[in-house]
Structure prediction request, 378 residues.
Amino acid sequence: MPTRTEPVRYGVPAQLFHWVIAGLIVTQFVLARMSLHLPVGARKLALLARHKSVGMTILMLAILRLAWRLRHPAPPLPPGMRPAERFAARATHAAFYVLLFAMPLTGWMMSSAKNYSVSWFGLFTWPNLIAKNEHAFNVLRSTHDVLSNVLFAIAVLHILAALKHHFWDRDDVLMRMLPSTRQR
Amino acid sequence: MRRMMMSAMMSTALAATLLGAGSAQPAAPATGFSADPASSRLEFTGVQAGAEFKGSFHKFSAAIDFSPDALDSAHFDVLIDMASEDSGDKDRDDTMRGADVFDIAHFPSAHYVTKSFTKTVSGYTAAGSLTLHGVTKDVPIVFKFTPNAAGGNLSGTAELKRLDFGVGRGDWKSTEWVADAVKVAFSLSLKPKS
Prediction:
């Protein structure tokens, strides 16, 4: 696009965090949906075991990502965005960060409350966060479920916003999160 | 006969030796105990999806004949009510009691009986057989015996493979998500048999 200048991109680590975690979150939705209507059994156990391992991976990446983000501010939003748009963008990004922690933590607590310890791909076992408690499990499962719907909603919003910036506003918001393709 | 040529004292000592006791009271059998259900535990640890889980049997009876100096007459007989299995989650317990795992409708109890005992450096081992899920296999146990005012404490461990006993059919036969090896631990509060 002639009107687009070479964008100030996110750094390589920030882009890696973004796309790897995005891919893992999609995996999580797929695993959760696949296990949802299965009866209690080995297949469900296997799917949920993978779901938990991936979830703990996301939690560890979220810690690293937050630490990185605090030291490496995001590129500035493009000029010309209205205050409401700026607020919406910042609020969505903040909500993502909250959910990156809240989703795995509620899941981990769910497992603990049901007395199923969480393994990380069979390599080691995480300690239980809370004691076995049927009521807590039900509350946590509902919370995990509601938060997953919130996550889905803001992910859709996030993707639509990125596409709107790219194709409608014709700014560099989407390009900032993609590797440079500029020819030398 | 040689014995007839010996003094009375010598012959008594020899008789004791011939009886194979080698202890001060060769005739004393092992003391009979029973496990106090309220303060005794019988637990198992399995591995599910890479993570350990613990369970226990709340109902079992243990008849324990044991004295450290009368291992030849020692004998354990433990009867476990499989319906009392408790792993801390109803879904898992229902599955474990069901037809594909313990199948308690057909095999409501498990039974452990010892055959022989051996003294070790830190305690004892017993050879014995476990009947579980209708299958009988040798399962040794390693234990310690600590006498106390009330009787004694018997605590120890065993390891077994669930598939040796046909525990786990269908989807549960695979060891990918539920390990074959299961650890058993017990601590029995022994009281003299009344």
